[in-house]
């Protein structure tokens, strides 16, 4: 179990899961039905199963690249801790569990589940042909808020879509920062990424632009919902942490990439969701 949790970087669930909870509670407020614990558990399970499938598939598909990359050669599959066939079985199992969870939620979630899987699994191939791979990762994680909202209401709405687009640009921005570590490796093998395409300085500039768009979308969401002081406190904290991560990484100094990528974004996501959910309940 410990090996598989490490394989899928389970701790990184804190990136998208808090936004899924935001979508869930927006839906709960809209329907006025109160807290449905059965549905809440199903949404969390669906989120975890989908992310586990996507992450394990990424590790399975990239196993040869990971083995060749000094930074990633100690990962579970290239290190021989988990066999490729076992990882693929783990992917299939989580896909089945995700679709089962969607079926138990409602019909629209079940019908859309194959599309969701095609997006989150398909991301793993994008680095082979487009430097926009970071955007595709953002699209995959952006399904969390609108998916959770659909689970509660069964229909689409503007507010959760604004949060979904916020996640898209936020994730794409910080994934570019993370990809700075592999710029030279990607270029040597012809893999696509924004750092490989634009260089470190250009990639960091683009990351800042994407995060600026995130700020604007969150402002639009706040005004759309007429949120109060709790939301705006969360927004300020989230924005400050996103801005802070850009002070940690410089084109000639990547020592704090992991701090900027994992720690800062994880804290930002959790704190922001706590303030938004508190706003929704009050």
Question: Which whole number gives the mean pLDDT?
Answer: 94
Kindly report the name of the CATH homologous superfamily.
UbiA prenyltransferase
Strand content: under 5%
Largest sheet: none
CATH class: Mainly Alpha
Helix content: over 70%
Structural class: mainly alpha
CATH topology: Tetracycline Repressor, domain 2
Keywords, separated by commas or semicolons:
282 residues; mainly alpha; Tetracycline Repressor, domain 2; 12 helices; 78% helix
Please describe what this structure looks like.
Helices cover 78% and strands 0% of the residues. It is an all-alpha fold and 282 residues long. The chain has a single domain, classed as Orthogonal Bundle (Tetracycline Repressor, domain 2). The longest helix is centred in the last third of the chain and has 31 residues, at 194-224. The chain is globular. The mean pLDDT is 94.
Secondary structure topology:
Layout: H1 2-7, H2 17-31, H3 37-61, H4 63-68, H5 84-105, H6 107-126, H7 133-153, H8 158-179, H9 183-189, H10 194-224, H11 229-248, H12 257-281
